[in-house]
Fold these 2 entries.
Entry 1:
Amino acid sequence: MNVTAVARSLALATLVLSTDASAQRVIPPVPAGQPDLSSKNWIAGGGRTEFNDFVYTADGKKRFDAYDFKKDDPAYGCIGASWTRIYLNPNVVIQITQKVDSVRLQYEWMDIDRLVPLVDPTSANPRRSNVPGHPALGYSAAWYDGDTLVIDTIDMEPGYVTTMVERAGMPQSRRMHTVERLSRQGNVLTIATTHLDPANYRTPVETVIRYQATDWELMKYGCTPEEAAVVAPR
Amino acid sequence: MKLMSLGVAAVLVASVGVQRPTAHHSVPVNFDQSREITVTGVLTEIKWVNPHAHFRINVTNPDSAVVEWLIEMGAANTMRRAGFPMDRFMVGDRLTIIGNPGRRDRTMILNETVLPDGTHLTPTMRPRDPTGAASSGE
């Protein structure tokens, strides 16, 4: 990290984001050698969302066709279906906190709080962490590749890459291996994700989702299955 | 159409063809965004919750039967950020709701509501464009 970056990190240590009446946070300095992903909060709307032209396996297509939005969406139980599903949610804030040995990503959607250890990417069996209560989100380890935060996730329970729009029901099996690459371009945070799941896809599924910097603070989401499952009159 | 066959006081207003942001159980998946309807009824329940705020309203059909509708909105957090005046709604209010019909009977997503005093509100607190794209879409 050069002198300018160090100075910027120190300055950021005292920067306080404006707030929507929730508690203000004091932003800790970005550790030396890490890109600054945390001096701003992030909200969806940083640009176009992209899906590549992936190819299902026969079983994957069957699972996709069998998806029933009226009962299969894990959100009815306040549960994250996959990391991409979480990033696809509009209008919610993500807050990132960077430390020397970990990175914390707090997602307003479903109050998901993810503390991921930073590891040596060459390690055969790196330390990983999960998000209790969200089994489809697996176990993650992270590292920096230049200015990009890489998060590698395995050991997921079955879920759905997305439950939204025409791709609702794209399946995720226990064999899914997800790699998120988060990088900042000024006021845009780009999340490029590769999903490898040979049980459901013959080719990688690649998504690019862009967030924009925001002065909004995280708000409590407080989802309860009793309320989330209300989808019809009595 | 099944929704219309219920005979409730829903009026097909216009066809719209808008793609909006989507979330939770996904607006395009759960609601027919090619059509817009208007329902008038009495507010019986208000829930400012995430991922979807909702109203329940009692609607009187032409045959005088009273049926309940579920009116979904975006996330309460999103509506708070937009400055939506939640305190202006009270159980017992007679509301007019304009929105897209759900794929479940007697459901819709709110695009605009008209309060008893005639005030028009959208979830984003921005005027709707002619295509009805003001819904927060969650």
Note: The first strand of chain A starts at residue 41 and ends at 44.
Entry 2:
Amino acid sequence: MKIVFRLAWRNLWRQPRRTWLTTGAMIFANMLLVFMISLQFGMYSLMIDNALQVFTGHMQVQAPLYNDEKKMRQTVPNIVPLANAIREELQSDKVAARGWAFALASSDDRSFGIGIYGVEPEFENNVSNIPGLTSLGRYLGDNDAAEIVMGSVLARNLHVEVGDEITLMGSGVDGSFAAAVVNIVGIFDSGVTDIDRNIAEIPLGFFQDTFFMEGAGHQVVVFGDGLAAVPELKSRVQSVLPGDSDLVMLDWDALQPGLKQAIQADMSSAFFMYFVLVILVSFSVLNTQLMSVLERTREFGIVMALGLKPGKLGRLVILETAMMGLLGVVLGVAAGALVTAWFTTNGLAFPGMDEMAAKFNLPARMYPQINALTLLAGPITVFIFTMLASIYPAVRLHWQNPVDAMRVA
Amino acid sequence: MSAVRCVDLCKTYRQGDQDIKALDHVSIEIDKGGFVCLSAPSGGGKTTLLNAIGGLDIPDSGEVYVDGQRIDNLSKGDLADLRLRQIGFVFQAYNLIPVLTAQENVEFVMQVQGVATSERNEKAKEILKEVGLEGLENRRPAEMSGGQQQRVAVARAVASRPALILADEPTANLDSKTSDGLMELFTELNENHSSTFIIASHDQRVMNYAKRLVRMLDGRIVEDIDQRAA
């Protein structure tokens, strides 16, 4: 090992307590960053999965501009054969066709304007958690049956129960009058009031008959093996789309821009807090290195007198800081990984979280998501700022005169 | 050619309201292989002259030549290079690097010079043996006596065979026996390696060992004696 490395390492341990205090601050900050970022990413993943599992999916095939305008006539023709072809291409059942319409739902004594999804009962539970949230009655069965499931708030507002009949009135795809009488087979409770008050689902075949869709629908929802696989998913789905069609593929962040914005806003505030933490640690390092340089002024004067250039001395100070920083990164990442790994297995729960999570069909515990990014992003930032903090003490040596330095007691 | 030549050096320090003339039109020429003692009472200017010769301090006026090269107008970096390659320093307070062992202290300058590991290792061991510190190579300064530390400092100064060795009060912290030992070592190194020694000291023993004695007072040379002739 070069003498300079040995010198730097031994210099670090001249004041072991001070070095450990500073390194300890780095280890703690790194550990905290690893855990918090992992937990945050785990939470985002849960938020995204939960939001996408209601209706959105990882991606959808739609008619152009349908996502912005939601017009009844912006349809995907022959939607069921297209969904079948996508299922075959992906070798996955996580694909379902849907139609969407507005209608007036009327019970014996009340009427409300609602949104109605026409869904494939056989596949809908693979792309949406609404079937699993059916708390009264059952979910849809036959693709052509005149039956409906609706949100709990809507059922309450209409004063209806499972087994009752309601009337649906709306406009067909061609602008003609559409009407049907449907039997309520189930009531779902998503925990999201807007959905429970405004949404109902009927079988796609029945939807197409009622709204004169002639085999068309409005969206094919696709789920893949996670968000990272979405680009590949899109290219495979693209290969199945009819060559002459102008259908578009929209991924989850185009379909749910609000979700991405909410995550970005949360990330911004969290990363501001992390930045404050990193700055505090950097000042601790700056203080340590500055003290270390000041108390070695005489020694630096000697080595300058021996012929060492201030630049090389500065590099020595930077090397010492790098060693301390690396120690902080290695131990901090190790400690952070251990703590995070434990919570990855056992989860993290707050008092009262169980009931709330159950209401939203979420797991009762939060699980951090550990990967290279969550492990290294924070500690590398701490390391970079630590190195920046060493610049001033190192540069300071450039102004040092050896004779003056050697006069310091 | 002379090892060192100083021409009309002046250096003034400001102390409070007073200007102190540390060097007052000093001119001196020292031959290669010389063994010179600069003697003066405290504040007489000997350390200032030594620092000017070593490129540690820049005179207000005058010229300094080391091995024929004018050095008083060199940049900081060039002066550092000059000290690294041509000058060895021995200080009053030993000034070893406390976290390095005796051998590492001796090797340090050679490493900065870029000497290969095996060569500097061998040289360091050899020179430590020469100064009588065989077996103490792995001791740190705190584990050695003052005399031993000063010998390490000498070993460090001569390890890379500099042409010029400057020593500032090298015996000030040593007892008489150790001082004699050190001066004998200096004499031996001066004769064996033909290095030029300039020693600033007001220790009579050091003056006795010097081949040439230069007495200074209030920043001026007042006496220059060739002791070989005496």
Note: Residues 176-193 of chain B form the longest helix (18 residues).
